[in-house]
Amino acid sequence: MGGPAPEALKGEDWAGEMGERWLASLDRFEGMIAPIGAALLARADYQPGERVLDLGCGGGATTLAIAEGVGPQGTALGLDIAPMLIGRARQRAADAGSAARFVCADAATAQLAEQPFDRLFSRFGSMFFAEPVPAFVNLRTMLKSGARIDLAVWAHPRDNAWMMEVMGVVRAHVEVPPAVPRAPGPFAFEDLGYLEEILAASGFAGMDVVAYQGEQAVGGPGATPEEATNFVLASMAAGRILAEQGGTVLAAARADLTALFARHHRAGEGVMLGCKAWLVTARA
Known about the structure:
Layout: H1 6-10, H2 17-24, H3 26-44, E1 51-55, H4 61-70, E2 75-80, H5 83-96, E3 101-104, E4 117-123, H6 132-141, E5 143-154, H7 161-173, H8 192-201, E6 205-217, H9 225-235, H10 237-243, H11 247-263, E7 265-266, E8 270-283
Parallel strand pairs: 1-2, 1-4, 2-3, 4-5
Antiparallel strand pairs: 5-8, 6-8, 7-8
Helix pairs in contact: 2-5, 3-4, 7-11, 9-10, 9-11
C-alpha cells in the first residue's frame, strides 16, 4: 500500500522498510482492508480438508481465518517475503492455538515442501512481482491441476478515493511524477486485461471477476482525523515523499491531510473514503 509515484514504488522493499512500516501499524492496516478480505474469503468459501496457500499473508490474519475454514484435516499455509511479518503471524497463531503455519520466502522462486495445494488465496499480495509471469508460473507449480486461485487486487486509483485524495494533498506540496502503468505496486493490476494476460501466460484460465466497492476507514475503524494523518505519514509511501521535502512542507501537508480527513470523518466509524477492488478467480 503506497503512493503511485515511481520512486515510491521502487522503494517498497517488503523484506525491509515496507515490512517494518506494515508491522508498526499492523492493526490499522489490517482494520482498513479487513472488509475486502472478508469479501474475498466469503467468495472463496473454503471447505474442511482443503489445502490452501495464502500468498503475501502479511501478519497472518487471513491465514488464521482460512485455517478455521479448512479445519484440522486441511492446511492453511501463509507465505510472505517479510520476516518481521512472518514472525508476528507465527506468534498470533501460537496465541490463538491455530494450526495455521507460515513460511518466509519469495513466492517468485520458492518451492514448498507442503505443495501441491488445492487453492491459492491472496489479499493484495500478488501485485508486487518484478516479473509477474515467471512468478505466477512458479506459483502454479505449487498447485494441483485445476486448483482455484482467489485474488483481491486494487482497481484503478481514480476509483479509490482513499488514495486519490491523499495524493491530491501530496501533489499540492511536491511535484510527483505520473504513475507508470503496469509497474509493480498496489495498482499493477488495475487493468483487468493486463491481469488476464499475466494469468494466461502463466497457465491459468477461466478468469472471473466481481467488483468490491464501498468505503474503508483510513487508519482503521474509529481513527480520528489526527490518527489517520499520523498513519498516512508514518506508514504509506505518500508520507515518505513528504518527509523528504523537509519540516515546513511536511507541517503544511499534515495540516491539509488532517483537514481532509476531518471532512470525511464519521463518529463511530472513522475517516471513511471510497475504495474499489477486483475479486478475481481463475483455475490452474
